[in-house]
Amino acid sequence: MPLYYPQPGVVEQENDDFYQTAAITVSACIKESGVDPRAIAAIAFDSQMAGVGSIDENFEPATRFDSWLDMRCQPYIEYMERHHGDRVTRLTGCAPTCDHGPKILWWKEEKPEEYRRVAKFVMPAGYVAGKMAGLQADEAFIDYTFIHFSALNDAQNGSWSAELCDIFGVDMEKLPIIVEPWRIIGEVTGKVAAEFGLAQGTAVAAGCGDTAANALGAGIVKAGMLFDVAGTASVLAGCTDTFVADVENRALLTMRSVIPGLWHPLAYIAGGGQAWRWYRDQFFNTRRGQALPLDDLELYTQMANLADQAPPGCEGLFFSPHLGGRICPSTPEMRGAWIGFSWSHAQAHFFRAILESVAYEYAYYLGILGEAIPGLELTETRAVGGGARSDLWNQIKADVLGVPYQRLGRSEFGTWGAAMIAGKAVGIFPNLGEVAGEHAKPAGGPLLPQAENEAIYRPLIKQYIRLQGILRDAFVEMDKSKDND
Q: 20 to 30 A Cα–Cα from 321, which one of 16, 17, 158, 407?
């Protein structure tokens, strides 16, 4: 799906690209599977969560989709944070960041004519489902797993906040109806049936956000479970029965779970897994001029084997993984760093320090979560994504966090999560928590924390957190000095 970069900092997509891509994918899956379209009871979608699209009165795009990568709204993020940051965080569960609210303010203030054309702001999943069902603009919807990213909601009540909309001058009539993920919002129309390869009249459910769908698909449906998405970004999500508003630290974002009464406080590193690739391309690939294997997996295995040669704690070497700026809490001035290396450190130490840094960062997040919910018992972490294939990395995380790590046998979770929601919509799956738990099968036994390594890492977590504070102050000061030159 193409991205458009009209100028630096601007990243847009065509709303109809989401629709066309969905049609091509769904029709291909139905054709290749040989399933009779009449046997498909319902369909639901998940989608990226922090960007925002819009429709006019005819349910046609009013603007291009404003991607989560688009930073035009930065001045409005800063305004929200400076003047109303605590209130936004307390009500929504998410500190002001690059998401719906600041983007809506940008359109309102910078593009007033386009803003006036907007009947409703919508998510990609809601746009596709709405088009499939032939909805009118006043029927546009958003499901409740997205709303923490709006900066305009009351999370605990599952509603739009009249207070926040009034503060920021946002017309509440431009916000879609908030629904539960399994709400049937309509049926597939005749024209759409041909494009998607579906039967006319197939039920269309609201669906949810991609992270929520992944958590459901992985069976994260009980308080105390953790969900580690070890992908390009490293995401750690908890599962709690208590709403958390991280006003003090601004590190945790609290998303509603698909399962009623549960929440997913989460935080992430923008380039956690990406640091593997960066190290591979810039350092490991060139060592001693060795010929490289063609298989990426084999190369990553070699890197992990090398890192395993270094002892836990890397003999005092730390890495800061925020190569492109820190996300949670937001400190865009930060960059990466290795700290504490000496003549005795070898390449094995440097790469292991990268793996340990993600675990230390996760420990920082869990420390905040533990302060917010005293007595919260963490039972297991379920790891997915490319990085979850590394037993070494999983073991390091288990040792640092003191929580068992479990890989799952399935490789795709979001699609399965959306499918379960569709099944719930038509009564196939009465209890989502039960069916999600039953189908999230482990791949082998869990990796248990090793007491000896836990003892080594415990003081290093505190050192890492202190170093992050020092680095934050230093990078912020350097950025100010640069601006003053």
A: 407
